[in-house]
Amino acid sequence: MRALVTGGAGFIGAALAAALLARGDEVVALDDLSAGDATRVPVGAALVIADIRDGDALADACSSIDVVFHHAAVKSVPRSMNEPVLVHDVNAGGTLNVLRAAERAGVKRVIYASSSSIYGGSDGSPSYEDDPPNPMSPYAVSKLAGEYYCRVWSSLRKVPTVTLRYFNVFGPGQPADSQYAAVFPAFISALQRDEQPVIYGDGEQTRDFTFISDIVHANLLAADADALVDGAVINTAGGDPRSVNDVFRSVSQVLESLISPHHEPERLGDVRHSLADPTRANELLGWKPEARWEDAVAATVEWFRTR
Fold first, then answer.
1. Which of 39, 108, 116, 203 is the most exposed place for a label (fewest CB within 10 A)?
2. 166 catalytic, yes or no?
3. CATH code at 183-206+240-274+294-305
4. Residue in 112, 139, 149, 166 annotated catalytic
């Protein structure tokens, strides 16, 4: 298989590119390097430096491609509150560009990386793929718009698509050098500097954290699945929700840190609880999360500790 990974210099994209290469696939990684890092792109993958808002660059990158794994996006709820137009243009408009380029190139399937944020949170009960969406941030709206574009392109038989709704992915390689850093790298990097990590709100908000290796596996299964998955939307989640306070305690334990966190007010657009029902992933892809929480946290901390 010849694969194009948009956002291929990012956290998830680079891990996916490495897994594709390891099984013998050819890989083209496309990234504008605004958030990605060229050094993350694994040896053996061809790097194309381009923006997904550039239709001509996408058309060239899609030439002779079998499957597109679309991960390029502005991936931050807080940033979307400050820069909603940029987030819309990249996430929604960029996804439309990817689909148009894939259609013209005769790509066999596009796998779209969506987000649990489209649900808008829950009361603690699981979110199902057929639940009405309730986006609470411009980021969530932009990812939902991308889902709808994928659904239309599949239904019109322009190009088959599979949408994977990610729930709070974490693991080795996740960037910490941003004001919008996710909770794991933010906590780890602060504790390594002997600083107090910031927890927004009371820390009892919960997330269905999913380890990076499980997300990569879901993508590979989606690429190889039969036509029954075309047009499907599929939750991919760890199935073991944890509070932000739980994450802090787990990271502190591995680092043997006694530093206490600093609390700040809740952020606009953040949801209180997020939990997935993963049944469809198992039924359509034969996928279920395999990473154990303690092992995943230890591996993540160790990666940051060695850098």
1. 39
2. no
3. 3.90.25.10
4. 139
